[in-house]
Specification:
With 341 residues, the chain is mainly beta. It contains 4 helices and 20 strands. The strands form 5 sheets. The chain has a 4-stranded antiparallel β-sheet. About 3% of the residues have low confidence.
Length: 341
């Protein structure tokens, strides 16, 4: 009959909805063994939502989430704030969604001279708002913005390193090997084999770039020979033990901090690793002078050769540079024409 066919059809639809998986990770699952939620028809949960504890939340919700592994259910949007999670920032114990004023005082904490403040977020070290994820075993707290970050535990094929990188479950309090900066709040990864540590934001730095302020390509280098160099953007010293961008052309000592070189106001976001320099259709960069001997150059805008001279206050007090029109009395050496002065 038509009624029986309709019932069989409804059962098939219901079964399809029950078995429909999604890409949402169960918040209770351990990050090392994650599993996903399933979508079930109907917004009402007979056993109660694992996050809010209620059977109904929104009357018009057509579905809810169910975890077959943990045997728990969530309303739509409630899974974003589960009452219990296992987070990469604290893999040792589960964290419970708690109000700050409801966290019991732990009298077992041994007071030492340590600078650790258990009232702050254990990752970003900021004062949390009303709600936190708290560990009842070790007094660890995680603010809500930090709880929403779920970094991968392993990066198997990192862009700028030849070994897998593993998530560092502690704030990185030493300089990043890629940028040389200390940013404790940034997610970081490490290679135990090489003692290499890097911020998550520094793992995918471009290998080859070009800036409008320099005529040559710049290459990412993990380190440079020890010498005193300054960044051509911020003019601060460059620590050659950490990553930076440098020019490979002879007689060119142009160097930049990796963060300065890839800043939005400096770099156009274009990576040139797979582009042939001859196919870029860019005008050829020509130097304004070329060396023709020891301390002797040929300048493009002068008919004679220029020799490098040392400034003499009596002889050169009234001279000015023909390129920038500034007096030369504030420099130690300059190029001068002996034929026409």
């Amino acid at each position: 009959s038509k009624k029986m066919k309709k019932e069989r059809k409804n059962k098939k639809v219901e079964k399809k909805e029950v078995d429909q998986s999604c890409e949402i990770k169960c918040p209770v699952s351990h990050p090392t063994l994650p599993h996903t939620l399933f979508i079930r028809a109907g917004g009402s949960i007979q056993s109660g939502c694992f996050a809010c504890g209620k059977q109904k939340q929104f009357l018009r919700d057509p579905f809810h989430y169910h975890c077959t592994t943990c045997d728990v259910d969530y309303h739509d949007r409630c899974h974003l704030r589960s009452k219990q999670i296992t987070h990469p920032y604290h893999l040792q114990h589960p964290l419970t969604f708690t109000r700050l004023d409801e966290i019991p005082v732990n009298n077992n904490v041994v007071h030492t001279r340590s600078r650790i403040n258990f009232d702050l977020c254990g990752w970003c070290v900021k004062n949390p708002d009303t709600w936190v994820y708290s560990c009842s075993i070790c007094s660890f707290r995680l603010c809500l913005p930090c709880s929403e970050k779920n970094p991968l535990l392993t990066i198997h094929n990192p862009k700028n390193h030849h070994h897998p990188l593993y998530f560092l479950p502690r704030p990185l309090l030493v300089p990043c090997d890629a940028c040389g900066l200390v940013r404790a709040w940034e997610t970081s990864y490490t290679c135990f084999q090489c003692n290499y540590m890097v911020h998550e934001s520094c793992m995918d730095l471009p290998r080859i770039i070009k800036l409008t302020r320099h005529p040559h390509r710049l290459f990412l280098a993990p380190y440079l020979p020890r010498e005193v160099l300054s960044c051509s953007v911020c003019y601060k010293a460059v620590d050659t033990r950490y990553g930076q961008y440098s020019c490979h052309h002879d007689d060119c000592s142009y160097v930049l901090h990796s963060k300065c070189a890839t800043h939005d106001t400096v770099w156009d976001g274009r990576e040139l690793e797979w582009e042939d320099p001859e196919d870029q259709n860019e005008p050829e960069d020509v130097a304004s002078f070329k060396k023709v001997g020891h301390d002797l150059i040929e300048y493009f805008d002068h008919e004679h050769h220029l020799r490098l001279e040392k400034y003499d206050g009596a002889r050169d007090a009234t001279k000015q540079c023909q390129a920038c029109v500034f007096p030369i009395n504030n420099v130690n050496r300059f190029y001068d024409c002996n034929q026409c002065s």
